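Sequence in, structure out.
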Amino acid sequence: MTTNTIDTTAKMRKAHQDTLGGPEVLRVIETAIPTPGPGEVLVEVRAAGVNPIDTKIRAGGMWLVPPFTLGWDVSGVVAAVGADVSRLAVGDEVYGIPDFPHLAGGYAEFVVASERSFARKPSTLDHEHAAALPLSGSIAWQALVEVAQVGPGQRVLIHAAAGGVGHLAVQIAKSRGAYVIGTASAAKHALLRELGADEVVDYTTVDFGTAVRDVDVVLDLIGGEYEDRSAATLRPGGILLNITNPPAADATAAKAEAAGVRGITVDLDPNPTRLALLAELAEAGELRTIVAETFPLDEVVKAHETAEAGRTTGKIVLIP
């Protein structure tokens, strides 16, 4: 039996698109508030993160076909629960990745998704900063901790280290005892050192491919020619992690093998256990999120334009 704190016959607002294209295809509409089914929870969205994958799907669809509502980074409050929900209750503050890789629609005032899409929000983060963590933090944790098994003393190179994934990856690697090297423009170096980076390389003036050596793990958040140049920085048998282009996994592995290293492509597999571990790290003071800018839902077009400019430090967040 569903338990509610709201009238689900009421309307909600969401950012919607009927066609693929530029940011201008996004428009805010009114629609019915969804009702949670068995194993699902309805979350009142207090903040929703904007990710690069959002802009790519908006423009090209990838594996999805419109009409749809984007949004996989959510922080909010449980407003209703369906049958067979056991971990969460109405009133819980939660954050998560609603039903990735399927579209649940986080750019909205409410979202309904599987209970396992969510974990309890870190108590040290407000909703705005919690919404910047789930997807970006999960892929960084999955790559560095679960796949590469980064540990004390290892040298880890992180590209785009001040970006949405990068700034979290720096902190996660540091929490594992690694020596962290980040690439970023000079204006972002002070922030990265504050977040724990031991060494920062200005990619605009220095070729990291020749300046950095004896690395155990590279987290490539850019792709393209960065993948080829990164292989040269690795020790024999080192690991090149690709998260930008999962369809190119075979090509990444082949190029890495030719260079005497391992190439591993990481495709996000969300789970609530990982979200809980990220929350613990945040509550221990070892992980914080940087929010570059917030936009009201009505300015979702501007939010996507800003995201696509590619100069963001940290994350962009929508406030429904």
